[in-house]
Specification:
mainly alpha, Arp2/3 complex 21 kDa subunit ARPC3
Length: 170
């Protein structure tokens, strides 16, 4: 990996950590922060995939849920694997189709991420026997909001990417 790619990867990783830390410092309701922070992190994942490459994007895809767990957003450690797998599917879905149609690529990536997170969380809730408030929280943060954050991240990514490539920094 070149020094330029390493620097960009480090910058994007720092952004992911800063974005995830917003929930600790800003008085945003938890349900709202899911949309804002999720969209920003997804944008970073796509930006890494498009500008630095798949290896850097995979690092971010795995690092993001680890940070979320350390911040006690993911209540069960096994969810690190679930969210990492969903992030990897998001990046992979985008990269596979980005050369043909970027909007389709984001749509497929978002669908893949949603399916992995939703089905795994639903299965874990049943298997582990999670109920009550925790089950409702997991369903609300790792369920259908993933659609919105996936597309929101894509929209932010398109705007940032356009600026980067127009300013010849891309």
């Amino acid at each position: 990996m070149s020094l330029r790619k390493l620097n960009r990867t480090a910058l994007l990783l720092a952004l992911v950590i800063v974005f995830q830390s917003l929930r600790l410092y800003l008085p945003i309701p938890a349900f709202v922060s899911v949309y804002i922070i999720g969209s920003l992190v997804n944008a970073c994942l796509l930006l890494a995939a498009a500008t630095v490459g798949w290896k850097a994007a995979m690092v971010l895809a795995v690092a993001a849920p680890v940070v979320a767990y350390l911040q006690q957003v993911l209540p069960v450690p096994v969810l690190i694997l679930t969210v990492a797998a969903a992030n990897i599917a998001y990046v992979s879905g985008y990269l596979i189709l980005a050369g043909q149609n970027r909007i389709l690529a984001v749509s497929v990536a978002t669908t893949a991420k949603f399916m992995i997170v939703y089905l795994t969380v639903a299965g874990l809730i049943q298997y582990i026997g999670i109920s009550g408030k925790m089950a409702a929280m997991l369903t609300m943060t790792l369920g259908w909001p993933q659609w919105i954050t996936g597309f929101g991240g894509g929209a932010i990514f398109f705007a940032v990417r356009r600026k980067l490539f127009n300013s010849s920094l891309g």
